[in-house]
UniProtKB/TrEMBL annotation:
<dbReference type="Pfam" id="PF00293">
    <property type="entry name" value="NUDIX"/>
</dbReference>
<dbReference type="InterPro" id="IPR015797">
    <property type="entry name" value="NUDIX_hydrolase-like_dom_sf"/>
</dbReference>
<dbReference type="GO" id="GO:0016787">
    <property type="term" value="F:hydrolase activity"/>
</dbReference>
<dbReference type="InterPro" id="IPR000086">
    <property type="entry name" value="NUDIX_hydrolase_dom"/>
</dbReference>
<dbReference type="InterPro" id="IPR020084">
    <property type="entry name" value="NUDIX_hydrolase_CS"/>
</dbReference>
<keyword id="KW-0378">Hydrolase</keyword>
<comment type="similarity">
    <text>Belongs to the Nudix hydrolase family.</text>
</comment>
<protein>
    <submittedName>
        <fullName>ADP-ribose pyrophosphatase YjhB (NUDIX family)</fullName>
    </submittedName>
</protein>
<dbReference type="InterPro" id="IPR020476">
    <property type="entry name" value="Nudix_hydrolase"/>
</dbReference>
<feature type="domain" description="Nudix hydrolase">
    <location>
        <begin position="24"/>
        <end position="157"/>
    </location>
</feature>
Length: 172
């Protein structure tokens, strides 16, 4: 039997709910839908070809909402509040023959009035880059996962659950 990495230990020594096994890998993630008027905050990291909503892996013993607040603090050095749960996604993707599966909880986060919208850029943690994009312009952005773009552009009310099966023919 192949040995499995059943938890990923972050640089702070905490274990994330993420693992790699012989059939692929999995991660549980929390993300923020940060809005400031008609704009939404996006993030990327060095070497990544696309933009995603800020957030990260959930650690053992914390809720997804708590993970969002912690990740925003780590990545932007800001204390923001996770609001209503708006979206849950399940994403399955095959890359180079390996199945990647992710479940993500997306929370509403309002940008505080009076706080400079330039702070995410100024306070960005190493290798993180942030930018504000008008919601109407999201069609021109390579989002990760790409299927969340239409959801972010519509005025949906209530919690949504979306499943993205992007497995290719080389998946097991």
């Amino acid at each position: 039997m192949d040995e499995q990495n059943l938890a990923w230990t972050g640089p702070d020594g905490h274990q994330n709910i993420a693992w790699t096994g012989p059939d692929g890998n999995f991660k549980l993630r929390g993300a923020a839908i940060v809005r400031d008027g008609d704009r939404i905050l996006l993030c990327t990291t060095d070497g990544l070809d696309g933009w995603y909503l800020p957030g990260g892996k959930v650690e053992f013993g914390e809720s997804a909402a708590t993970a969002v607040v912690r990740e925003l603090r780590e990545e932007m050095h800001l204390e923001l509040t996770a609001g209503e749960l708006l979206l849950v996604t399940e994403d399955m993707l095959t890359l180079n023959g390996t199945l990647h599966q992710e479940i993500c909880f997306y929370y509403a986060v309002e940008w505080p009035e009076g706080l400079s919208p330039e702070l995410p850029k100024e306070n960005a943690a190493h290798e993180h880059h942030f930018r504000w994009v008008r919601i109407a312009d999201l069609v021109d952005v390579q989002l990760l996962p790409p299927q969340i773009g239409p959801y972010l552009m519509e005025e949906a009310a209530g919690l949504r659950h979306l499943v993205f099966d992007r497995r290719s023919s080389d998946a097991r």
